[in-house]
Write a structure and sequence with these properties.
Number of helices: 5
Strand content: 25-35%
Structural class: alpha+beta
Mean pLDDT: 85
Strand order of the largest sheet: 3-4-5-6
Shape: rod-shaped
Low-confidence stretches: none
Order of helices and strands: HEEHHHHEEEE
Length: 207
C-alpha cells in the first residue's frame, strides 16, 4: 500500500511538473509573439507621417530614399533649371531665383552665373525688359553609378517686346547626396553642371 501511494505521488508530481513546464513554455511563446507584434506595429507606425494642412492632419507614408531616387532627382534638376533659367526684368527677382538655384548646385553653376553677370547678360535682361522661361521636356537620370549622372532636355522662350525667340537647351551634370534642408529639400547637390547645347530654333512675332 505504501509503495503504491508513493508511486501515485511520484506520478502526480511528474504530471504536475510536465503541466507546469507546458504552461511556462506557452507563456514564453505568447510573450515572444506579443513582443514581435509590438515591434511590428511600432515599425509600421514609424512609416506614417502626418501633415497638417488647412487645420486637418493628413496621413502620408514614408518610404526608403532608394525607392524615390529617380523621382526626387528629376524634381531636383527641374527645380534648379526653373530658378536658374526663368528670368524677369527685375534685379531682385533675378537675385532671389538665382540664389535659390545656387543652393541646389556647386561652384560649376556659380561660375556660369558669374560669367553671365560679368558679360552683362542680366543687365541686358533688365534694360531690355526681357523675360525668359524654360520648359522641361525630359530629364534622364542614371542611378546605376554614383554620383548619379543626368541629362536635361528643355526649351527656352526669350520674350521681348516685339518677338519671342525659341531656343533648345540641353544640360548635363551629376548629383551627389547631401543633407536635406529648407533650401535643399531633396538632399541632392548638382555637380559639374554644363550646357551642352543652347541654339536658336526660331522667332515668333508678337501681335
Amino acid at each position: 500500500m505504501m509503495f503504491t501511494k508513493m508511486k501515485n505521488i511520484d506520478s502526480a508530481f511528474k504530471y504536475v511538473r510536465s503541466f507546469t513546464m507546458l504552461v511556462i513554455a506557452g507563456c514564453v511563446v505568447i510573450c515572444c509573439f506579443a513582443l514581435y507584434k509590438s515591434f511590428q506595429t511600432v515599425a509600421r507606425m514609424q512609416d506614417k507621417v502626418y501633415i497638417l494642412a488647412a487645420g486637418k492632419a493628413l496621413e502620408a507614408y514614408a518610404s526608403e530614399r532608394k525607392d524615390n531616387i529617380p523621382v526626387e532627382a528629376r524634381d531636383h534638376v527641374k527645380t534648379f533649371h526653373k530658378f536658374f533659367f526663368n528670368l524677369d526684368p527685375d534685379d531682385k527677382v533675378i537675385k532671389t531665383n538665382v540664389t535659390k538655384a545656387l543652393y541646389l548646385a556647386d561652384e560649376s553653376a556659380k561660375r556660369i552665373y558669374d560669367d553671365l553677370k560679368e558679360n552683362g547678360f542680366y543687365s541686358g535682361v533688365i534694360s531690355g525688359n526681357i523675360s525668359q522661361t524654360v520648359q522641361i521636356d525630359s530629364i534622364n537620370i542614371d542611378i546605376k553609378d554614383y554620383p548619379y549622372r543626368f541629362k536635361c532636355f528643355a526649351r527656352q522662350s526669350i520674350i521681348r517686346t516685339t518677338s519671342i525667340l525659341k531656343r533648345s537647351l540641353i544640360t548635363e551634370g551629376s548629383l551627389r547626396n547631401v543633407s536635406r534642408s529648407d533650401n535643399n529639400p531633396h538632399g541632392f547637390l548638382i555637380e559639374r553642371f554644363n550646357t551642352i547645347e543652347n541654339k536658336d530654333l526660331g522667332v515668333e512675332n508678337r501681335k
